[in-house]
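sorry for the late reply, my laptop died twice this morning and i had to redo everyting from scratch. anyway the thing you sent over, i finally got around to it. pasting the sequence first so we're on the same page, its 179 residues, then the predicted structure underneath. double check i copied it right bc i was rushing
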Amino acid sequence: TDELKMFHTGKFSDVQSFDFDSQSKTLWFNIDNQLFYLKDGKIGTHDNLVTAIKVRKQLGNYAFIGSSSGIYINNERISNLWTRAIEFDETTGMPWLATNKGLLGLMLKNDKWEIKYNLLPDTQILSVDIDEAKSIVYTLTFDGSVYSVSANGETDLICKVNEKNQVFKFKQHNSTLFF
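ok and here's the structure:
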């Protein structure tokens, strides 16, 4: 049946992050500096030390959180860069993070996540998505520039969004970018 279900958290603030984890079938969302989850039709809260969460993604045993106070992996801050978006390249296992100071590509080395790529430094990155079929990462900057990133970390400006439109997010599907 097409039934609308409402879940109330007891908060009356805007949702700051809204991320679905397909592996655990869990919806994660942040309201008023409190991290909630919805799983099996039930809402719960998750204790964590991070405030102002913008994105939460799970990769195996690693919980990646991007916030205005930095990048956290399993509640440990690895950078103080404001992070708006995180996408995982399933082919390489590399997480890509859209930060206020560039696009970061991380790699796991000796059980620790390290920055492998710091691309477009000093550029505010708003959104990131991945075309895994072509091994291309796409990123959108604050000024509307869209870059592709090759598997070896080379960036290429592919277009600029009309300056009359402020685009904050995009998605790639079947090699087409949707703004």
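DSSP finds no helices and 18 strands in the chain.
thats about all i looked at so far, will dig more tmrw
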